[in-house]
Amino acid sequence: MEAMLNLFVSTRGSGKMMKEFLLNTGSTIEEGRLAKGGSKLTEDYTQECAVCEMNPGDFQDLGSPQKVKITSRDGRYSVAAYAHPEESIQSGQVFMPRAIWSNVVVDPETFSTGSPLYKGSPVQIEPTKEDVLSAEELVLKLYVRS
Amino acid sequence: MATLIIRNGYVFDPLNEINGDVKDVFIRNGKVVDDLSGAEEKEARVIDATGKTVMPGGVDSHAHVAGAKVNAGRLMRPEDHYKSVRSRTALTHSGSGYTIPSVYKQGYDYAVMGYTTVFEAAMPPLEARHTHEEMRATPIVDMGAYLVLGNNWFIMRYLKEGDIEKAAAYAAWMLRTHKGYGIKCVNPAGVENWGWAQNVHSLDEPNIHFEVTAREVIRGLGEVNELLGLPNSLHLHANNMGHPGNWEITRNSLQILEGLKPQNKTNVQWAETKMDATRKQTVYLAHAQFNSFGGTSWRDFCSGVKGVADYVNQVDHVVIDNGAVPFGPGTAMTGDGPAIHDLYMLSGQKWSNTDVELECGSGVIPYTYLKSSPINSVQWAMGLELLLQIKDPWKTIMTTDHPNGGVFTQYPKVIAWLMSRKAREDTFKECHPWASARSSLAGIEREMSLLEIAIVTRANQARTIGIANRKGHLGTGADGDVTVYDLDPTRLDVNDYSKIKRAFSQAEYTVKEGEIVVHRGEILRVPDGRRFYSTPFVDETLEKEMLADVKEWFKYYTIGYANYPVPDKYLKNPVAIQVNKPLEAVARR
Amino acid sequence: MAFKNIICPVCGASCDDIQVELRGSKIVTKNACKMGNAKFWEIFSPHRIREPLLKESGSFCTALWDEAVDRAAMILVKAKRPLIFMGSETSCEAMQVGLHLAEFLGAIADSNSTVCHGPTAMGIQEAGRVGATAGQSKSRSDLVVYWGSNPLESMPRHMSRYGVYPRGYWTRRGRFDRTVITVDPRKSITARNSDLHIQLKPNTDYELLSALLTLLHGKKPHPSVEKVTGVSISEMEEMLERMLGCNFGAIYVGLGIASSFGKHRNAEAALNLVKELNNHTKFVIGALRGHCNVAGFNQIASYLYGYPFGLDFARGYPRYNPGEYTAVDVLREQDVDAALIVSADLVSHFPAACARYLAELPVACIDIAPCPTTMISQVVLPGVIDAMECDGTFYRLDDVPVYFQPFTGSPFSFTDSNEDTMKQIFQKVKEMKR
Amino acid sequence: MAEVLLQPKGKIGIMIEAEVIRADTLAKKRGEEIERLLVWQGPVQLPLGDFFEVEVRGTGQAEETVVVIEGDVSRVKRIGQGMKTGKIEILGSAGMHLGAEMAGGSILVRGDAGSWAGMEMKGGLLQIMGNAGDHVGCSYRGSWRGMTGGQILIEGNAQSQLGSGLVGGQIVVAGNVESFCGIRQNGGLVLVKGNAVRGAGAEMTGGTLAVLGKIKHFSPGFVEAGREESPKLGDLQLEGKFARFSGDYAISKNPKGVLYCKEG
After folding, report:
1. Disruptive mutation site among D139, D141, D252 for chain B (greatest number of B CBs within 10 Å)
2. Residues of A with CB under 8 A from a CB of D
3. Which domains, from first to last, does chain C contain?
4. ipTM exceeding 0.90?
5. How would you label D239-256 residue by residue, b for 16+ Cβ within 10 Å and e otherwise?
6. Which residue of A47, B99, C311, D80 could cross-link B403, Cys pair, CB 3.0 to 4.6 Å?
7. pTM to 2 decimal places
């Protein structure tokens, strides 16, 4: 659990550029518009929500990637999203709109409160070439057993 | 509908001057009747009440049982609930909560004790929808709620301007809009000040901005009440509640309404009673115990009951309920936000508060009354003193101000103390010596009779709040709400008071409108109770003028005028009590 | 046809001033925000679920209503321990049926509250809550603190209707009469529009609140707090001074408090701070609730059964213990074996471990549009849109109930409302259990 | 001396609640009687024998009865709840609420214990050889009165809210604790030999908390009140130099909580 308090631990290994961040998820007005408008399975929604905003410095350190792979603390789940530099975010943190992409990597631990760590979940981030999946594709890939 | 006969019981029906006579009670179609035809009698269901006590169904005229502040208490106190549960049955819902039971449990618990009518003591207008939702969900018991108006911006403005007719028009419109039963006034002028973390501490101190005094609000709402002719008198929660020495302001508050004439202009059918069943008082002093503190601080704290009781003994326009303290856990909850803040300062407990825009406020705090506490012990004594020192039982009502002084399920304990000096003496031995040293209780010999208990637990409640046209007695035409207690008055030994407690804890039978709903603690039927509210009329032009003001100021609300009222949908079995006919409607004088 | 005073069923603001004009199959609204508008358009949207769907060998086919209700009931009846999840975008009346159903089955009943302001409710259970209805701050507040909340994106009209801009009785100049402080690790758009932005490090709200309380009690906080929170003690003193200097302060907490590390303890500390501030000046605190009726479940579950969320009825009476009976935990621990989900998209909003287990279970859902949760369900029942197509009750962010009336009817012949659908399922369940 | 052996029959799906597994409840019962005792699985009550092979060896009074659970019962809740006397030994891990409201006797878990172990415990000994979950020795939601007596020993680590609302008794953790250890503590003693993450002693109004390792985020409302060499806390003798703090000033102007932190 100490991981929640560690900011910016570099875990460079096997030549891979991988960093630990604290993931903050939250509403954005466009996310709200699309979700409330029943458009969760649309391309617009993917463009708005499959997004990982980070401090421009961190973005540069990761090699200014177009896309990043975000992996949960326990390493069990990961998701690809579009990377965006964003001045409003402090170094060591990333922001993703609250939606299926971010929630894939949110820590399910609730500390016996019923509520997972939607804010401040430790995640690992690395540049990726993987495709950013739509909500539908993500459900099929991660959750539905064929 | 079926017929029911309750045979051979010892009947205590004060409004019909029946004092333990052995009688049969007949009910047809939910109403008490003189007798039944031979054929009906053959078909009737019969309760054999031989050797048992029969009373009208219990009426609670002041309890906090529904609405936003009660629910704030429920939400904030899981520790109150987890060991106090009720399982579901094929017929009943489950529930939880000791001092603040969930609504199903609450309804069943009242019915098990033989109560069939309960009035919610404080309904904030903006939260009226919530209060009605909870009442709608409460099983069995009949209910109504008093609308909180003592710090209402419109009322304060009209009273400042001296426009009593418009104040009356506004109160009438509010009662209709929110389906309220009567007018409640909580810490007049003080709760508005609490909007700025202040209070008022005397009757003549103008409050911030509105510049009205408690005296003006009490007088004004008292007049409004009688101008409209509401079933209930002004229901007053006096200033400085919970402060040492407050007995004086309490007495002075009651004095304000001297000379005002009670006017009941309800257009309802009256069941037969020997005594006049209309209310005599113009002010109902709620939970007098909390407003009869003596001393000047917590160090020299003592009972101030004498001052209040002496006054009430002299006058005829006051009825009090005592707000007894039976010891044990309680949850303090009231529309008096600043009073609860004071309690928070003393106890450091968890504390909830909700101020309601333009209208009123409320506070909630857990509180446990301990026999080891000197203050609590005096409070216990005071609650009983009030009922025993005021000579005429028709000026008193027994409550615990549930759940403030204690839980309503503790009523049987209070009854035992009122009926048995031995019970009081035994408690003196267990509690702090201040109880006897700082109150007069130890010297009181009076032991209430079953007739007096019937007065202070049902008959007077009904008469005081103006519902004795159908409740609180067993005269022809009354609602067939009857309680049979397993208590033989001819063999009653009040020294053996545990029997009294047992009998009143669990009615042998509770009958609601002619149907047996409870037998020895088991719920047999779950009818929907009725919801009473008042619909007073005022002159159309006056109402129009008043509404123009209301609309102008409505912009300070965060809800639109159109969405402000309580819809009919929130009331099951509504009973609108028409107050004054259009002909008598209040007009500008 | 034009309608006024319509209540918006989107966020906790429950704006009740929406004007709606229906022109054939077009809808024009006034006063609604972007999110609200989008929801109003749902009435005619092409992706609206208009028929019951059943999953047969992996793919959906349309079904008869009775058949679908039957299947939904069957899922519940066959389960050992079902989860009834009443989402917040439906009426209290529907939620009440859900609670009754859970009681009848001995199931678990939960709601969005659990993952929204559940920890705030738990904080209230530790500390109480000194609050007010929204109009108090509208008329009186001269200081507003958005703590871990970003209303400009989550409740777009909060600032204009309740918090910052409204001209109330003593706040005739609106924004000019108010100081705005935002506490947020992110320089959010709300933070950028504030007079003071306290940019604390993530997951350190508890320490910052604790330090403010310590200062209020006349002690200097332990110096390590500066490094921990990234906020200097002098900044804290400045903030506290502003708070003590106001006539009426209001704190609006968001999920930055409830959802971050510390959870209900963060909420508890914020609630304690407000309690203590009331010994000096007037202060109130409230939660910004992103979903429209998330407060409603708290209220009705409390008055019907005694607890605000996460209720377990296994033993025939309600029990409550977040972490044990709450939806995320019972899914993560695989302690339920079926689910009925009403107006909520758990697959999108729950962590992967929970969503994945849910996808393995028999699930029935009621919804208006396709989403990840409908994808994994075996039964999908079309939802009716509350406040547009049926009447009912929502509780606002400040726990004031509002009664909403529809401007059009249910588009379906087989159900009038989600409440109606729930009642039909319950009826079937009773028949099957007989 | 009597021994009751409970052998789990296989994987348990929906968790069961088995407060009947108490030494004093099982004492003096025959195997068949024990098998017929009911446990809850969801809303259904099933015989204990559905989940365990039961074997009884010897006879004896409750206080000399030992219940041995020979396997993993991490999906069995409420073992030993309210137990007054006798002994339970669990060879594997135990589920939630182990030994909650226990008043006497002892429970030993070889593996881990789920959350709410020893909640509202009044007496007896609860020993956890592995790790413990959240809320060890805690109060119920909304209450500020947790464990009032007895002893809890944890060899491994414990998660959050350990000893919340502690009134009396003792909790010793050999490993680390996470957040809010000793929150709202108002009496009793908590000793953490390892590290604490945050909120150690937060909202404390009385009692003693000692942390020998590091506290990552120190609770801001604690004020240094002196230094002590090898303090003795009840019957526990600590070694080394300690800084003594009083607090938590975030909760009150006059708190009586004492926090010892080992120096160096």
Report:
1. D141
2. 1-2, 5, 111-112
3. 49-115+300-433 (3.40.50.740), 118-287 (3.40.228.10)
4. yes
5. eeebebbbbbbbbbeebe
6. B99
7. 0.97
